[in-house]
Amino acid sequence: MKKKKEKLAFGRLNLLRGDTLNSSKRIKIGFIGGGPNSFIGYTHRLASRFDNKFETVAGVFSTDKSKSKKFGISLGISEDRCYADFLTMAKKESQRSDGIQAIGIMTPAGYHYKIAKEFLNRKIHVICDKPMTATLNEALLLEKVIKKNNMVFALTHNYSAYPMLREAKYLIDNGKIGKIHLINVEYPQGYTVGLKKNEERNVLKWRLDKKISGESMILQEIGTHAYHLMRFVTSLEVKELLAQVDTLSDQLTVDDNAFIILRMQNKAKASIWVSSAATGGENGLKIRVYGNKGALEWFQDDPNNLKYTELNRPTKIITRASAAVSNLSLKSSRVAAGHPEGFFEAFANIYSEFADTILDKSIRKNKNNIFPGIKDGIAGINFVSAAKKSSKKNGAWIKLKS
Q: Half-sphere exposure of 330 toward its Cβ, with a 13 Å CA cutoff?
């Protein structure tokens, strides 16, 4: 019976995700940023290739013209489409009959708005790394540009694309844990622990410039991830928050730790802890949601398993791509149950859904995309702004702008 269920689950998986290559439907994409030795650049390019929906044909990979060209050629891009700057790329690609249809942006947040605007105004769709912008004003301006041009915009909060987090969302949206009372998200990293004052500029680089990185390094870097994940999984919005955002190290000039308490619109209570000052921390992202009928828990170190506890019953472990999961979860999987699947695949889910939305006008009309978009980006920057404001007022409660 178990083997029969597993076979049925794998059959469902194949029906939901195919691997047919259709060159005529592949979207021509270019990239800004993410040059040599950039992990996030490698991640974006790899994610775009997972499901055969994109073809990389252009890019600007460095502010150094020769370095950008050399790296672009190493990726198989024609020399005349390895550009020195994004303005030249936007102009020239929009004039070509075979020009790019989409652009991936992975520069620091302070450049996102001005880059995205140039391409959106030329009817080129945008997929952008998080955080969306450095300021709330830029986020709101970007929303206007997207609406004016009726373009597809995706934001790579990739954690929300893990299959078992989508299963958690499905269970919550379908009332399986009842009314939510408590939410906890934590994201402890330790990459700034031990960093000396004379090393800060060399290691943190542009993160030291608030015009480029935003008000708070820790909130922009990983706080926006935690905040989006909480909203995505629970489908709840925040009413108000109080925060303590600090620089724990006397060697640093940027925020490296934040504790946030939140009151949700449904009167649930929530907490977020994010840090780069947690000694030994790697990427310990965790979310726990407690309702009056049950609870859910997910930990990125064990991403293929979701803990589900029903009231007065033993805890169950729901496994990725098993016969028990929903289609929402299953269509985000690529391999059969029992095989490891993780970060790159989750990132690729957003790229794939971005592509489907570009290609299918009916999806665009629906405007109910599962992937993060402009509204999520605005919510994230609004969260950062409110948390900093609260912290400066010694932990005062701050209402979130709707």
A: 21
Q: For domain 2-158, which architecture applies?
A: 3-Layer(aba) Sandwich (3.40)
Q: How far apart are CA 143 and CA 378, in angstroms?
A: 8
Strand intervals (E) in 61-188? 102-106, 125-128, 153-155, 180-188
- Is the domain 162-335+374-399 a CATH 1.50.10.10 member? no
How far is residue 10 from each of residues 127, 330, 335, measured CA to CA in Å? 30, 9, 8
pLDDT in tens, 233-287: 999 999 999 999 999 999 999 999 999 999 999 999 999 999 999 999 999 999 9
Q: What are the residue boundaries of the structural domains of the chain, listed by start?
A: 2-158, 162-335+374-399
Coil vs helix vs strand at 350: helix
pTM: 0.94
For 222, the token pair is: 């990983």
Given the structure tokens 């076979």, which residue do they identify? Answer: 7
pLDDT tens string 174-213: 999 999 999 999 999 999 999 999 999 999 999 999 999 9
Residue 366 makes CB contacts below 8 A (sequence gap 6+) with: none
- Which residue's structure tokens are 């169950």? 316
